[in-house]
Amino acid sequence: MSLGGTAQEARKGPTKLWLPVVIVVGIVVGLALSYVVPEPFGYRMFGYDFVDRFRESLILHMILSTVSIALLFSLIVIYLRVYADTGARFALGILVVMFALLIQSLFQYPLLLSLFGNYPLEFGPFLSSADLFTIAAYSVFLYLSLE
pLDDT class for 72, splitting at 50, 70, 90? Predict the structure, then answer.
């Protein structure tokens, strides 16, 4: 073994440490972007103003959506590398699915929806729960892909 290592060691790629880094970066970027989203228009029901509650739900959804997108980007990078190294058609199939999920996530991104005044606020707790399940699934997939 040489001092510089082999070519395979030099091109080893990301380690399992990448998972928490991607999650933290997603949280920080999502929190920063949540300040860009304009205030939702007033929701008033039974004499109670729901704007504050919806704003909190929107910020949480924004952060969780950004984490999901960050995880998808990292999965795309990993499988692009796998495909480039091996030429495996399976990796190409995974890339097609990951790109489709990324496009779907971007079209449902709260910042994009806020530009058109279309807030998904009616399902606040359900959106956060769905985001958490998505993050868990992408995290497991990324962890297994890094092995």
Answer: very high
